[in-house]
Design a protein that fits this description.
Helices cover about 35% and strands about 10% of the residues. It is globular, with a radius of gyration of 17 Å. It is built from seven helices and five strands; from the N terminus they run E-H-E-H-E-H-E-H-H-E-H-H. It has one domain: Rossmann fold, CATH 3.40.50.
């Protein structure tokens, strides 16, 4: 924990990765200040999931910020084209990549952290079982941490921000197993890129496939099927 503050800003998407990252922040003794960004995604189901997760974690506060990246486009998650189905590809950046999304989200989290007097920001990015997004790599996280120190009043005055990505070198199965050890209910999360009208997962997009493989390899049944919202 930072010597300067017990507060941590946690980027919370409503998915199982950010839920686990937030739970690890709580386990480390941080008070959680959850931030969810409405970036123009195709559906609002993950926002509802983020609210459930924030409540389950006992977040001190949960802010929802609207930054409509859909006005810029450039991603299937923003309505530009169809969400790819039934095939995980690792040899190219997929159509679901949202240009600069994590850069934007971390910048917003950094702004709130500076206001709160917090120096720790948690993000649930993963560089192993993921869809090939460039802003999920350790190099990016390290570069943004350096930027945080240069771009803020708190940084110039000697504060040291830490961008914490505790899942970055874990497989999806390892993440799920760690969450199970923490007693997390993954049934309240949402992972699907292209859910059915009532919010049920499509079962065919990259995110659904990665989630299913992770639970299978972890030897744990996905509890999402037992929940109806």
């Amino acid at each position: 924990m930072s010597a300067a503050s017990s507060k941590a800003v946690v980027l919370l998407s409503g998915g199982l990765d950010s839920y686990t990252a937030a739970a690890l922040a709580r386990e480390a003794g941080f008070d959680i200040y959850a931030l969810t960004v409405k970036y123009g995604q195709r559906h609002g189901h993950e926002i509802l999931a983020a609210r459930r997760v924030a409540e389950a974690l006992g977040a001190m506060a949960h802010r929802e910020l609207a930054v409509d990246l859909a006005t810029l486009g450039g991603s299937a998650l923003l309505g530009d084209g169809e969400v790819p189905k039934d095939g995980l590809r690792t040899d190219s950046i997929p159509a679901t990549y949202v240009p600069a999304r994590n850069t934007v989200m971390l910048a917003l989290a950094l702004a709130w952290a500076e206001v709160l007097g917090a120096y720790d920001i948690f993000i649930g990015v993963n560089a192993l079982d993921y869809s090939g997004y460039p802003d999920c790599r350790p190099e990016f996280i390290e570069a943004f941490e350096r930027t945080a120190g240069l771009a803020t009043k708190a940084g110039v005055e000697g504060g040291m921000f830490r961008i914490q990505a505790p899942l970055i070198s874990m497989t999806k199965a390892e993440i799920i197993q760690r969450g199970a050890e923490l007693g997390l209910d993954y049934g309240i999360t949402h992972s699907c890129y292209d859910p059915l009208p009532q919010g049920a997962p499509c079962g065919h997009c990259d995110s659904c496939l990665l989630r299913a493989r992770g639970f299978d390899e972890a030897g744990i049944k996905d509890p999402l099927v037992a929940h109806v919202f």
